[in-house]
Amino acid sequence: MHITSTEYQNQTINPEKLGIFGNYFSKLKVGSMLNNSGIVKTKGASPLELFTIVFNLAFIGKNFFQGVVRNKKVGVGKDAVYDFLNSPTYNWRRFTTLLSSRIYCIIKGLLDNSSEEVLIFDDSPYDRSRSKKVELLSRVYDHATHKYLKGFRLLTLGWSDGNSFLGIDFALLSSANKKNRYNEINPDIDKRTCGYQRRKEAITKSTMHLEPMVKKALKTGIRAKYLVMDSWFSMPSVISSLRKHIHIICMLKDHPKWFYEYNGKRLRLSDLYGKLKKKRGKAKVKASVLVRLPDGNKARVIFVPCDKKRGWLAFLSTDITIADDEIIRLYGKRWDIEVFFKMCKQHLKLVKEIQIRNYDGLIGHTSLVMARYNILSLFQRKSVDQRSFGDLFRACNEELANITFLDALTRIMQLAMATLRKVHNLSEKIINSMLDLIMGEALVYFGLSNRQTPLLEGE
User: Fold this and answer.
1) Per-residue pLDDT tens for 426-449?
2) Pure H helices in 307-450
3) H or E segment at 417?
4) pLDDT per residue over 25-55, tens digit each?
5) Cβ-contact 202, 155 below 8 angstroms
6) Superfamily assignment of 97-341 in CATH?
7) Reduced to 3 states, what is the DSSP secondary structure of residue 54?
8) Angle between helix 428-445 and 405-423 (nearest 10)
9) β-sheet bridge partners, residue 147
10) InterPro entries per the record (predicted)?
11) pTM for the whole structure
12) What CA–CA distance (Å, rounded) separates 361 from 364?
């Protein structure tokens, strides 16, 4: 789409309206990225102004109704925001790619050559259990609770270096089985638009999206040596297609139809474990073996001890040159995407901020929430990593500890909660209230709250 100079000028905004993220919006050239994604002004407020209004809602503690509908100070009506999010012609996937790749380039300048960058695949339920008329609403399976719910599956590809996590791409999936879909595609959608392509994508199997998403991420210049996945994506056919582009590290599932060749025999995972000689005692790795996958390529499978019910867990690496302990350590980076999902849902209002029935609106809002997380990730990295303040510090500081800020905060809070339960005779309600207060003060301290002065400094 050709963008005129007049349209580009409409993508500017008073920096004061951007709050603490004004400097980041300016340096990242968010308005320019919106233009390049075909998100341009047709009437009324500029897309950058509308983007900013919705972007800031999560940081001022207000939902869409409180922050837009009842807030006359924003200067735009709810219809303008709905039209902005619901447009089928806006290429939100391109915007997400442009923003994440630009932030990645900034973070890449802080990395040592020895940094271990990985791509991570996972999905998470997008719960709309109380909805009835949402476009493409379906019955989806939640792997965590082992129950079905109404909603979607948010398939996400992310990048991590062990310190920062970025959302690179996503697909908001309905069900590929028509019987599980409550509502179908809006028949009035123009089939030439980006919105229609995202709808067709939503009703295809999740495994069909993995290879295209990885290829696109690597093509944008994002570097990673390994792709880390959970057992839900560890089918031999999927591993074979993905290993053409990147090495795979994944957990394995003992599926009756998935076989691995060992000593000339095709064995399922549990049978393979039974054939191997195990290390005694408290060894971290009980057994390690080279196997051949159905495509003829070799892979390393390791077995580690687990709970008494199952006894072991299995991991696979298509890179047969790395050590067993290294496979486990690299797989541990998958935790970063779990923190991402939790942060997006609990604090960045992925599901509860605005109730949209239009599928384009769901895509637009999810893209905006991912933008929040990615900019926050850059904000956190620049705040914690001293090397971002100038070249002087580059040679003087060691690499950050291989743990994300959010991961560390989560572990600290979990430890604090466990300690309170053991030491003090307090109810769960009181403990949760104390933790909410602490988190609120932390947000003020890091400049992520509209309250300027922490309680301790105000005394």
Assistant:
1) 666 676 676 667 666 665 555 555
2) 324-331, 335-346, 359-384, 405-423, 428-445
3) helix 405-423
4) 989 999 999 999 999 987 788 999 999 989 9
5) no
6) Transposase Inhibitor Protein From Tn5; Chain A, domain 1 (3.90.350.10)
7) helix
8) 150
9) 142
10) IS701-like_DDE_dom, RNaseH-like_sf
11) 0.80
12) 5
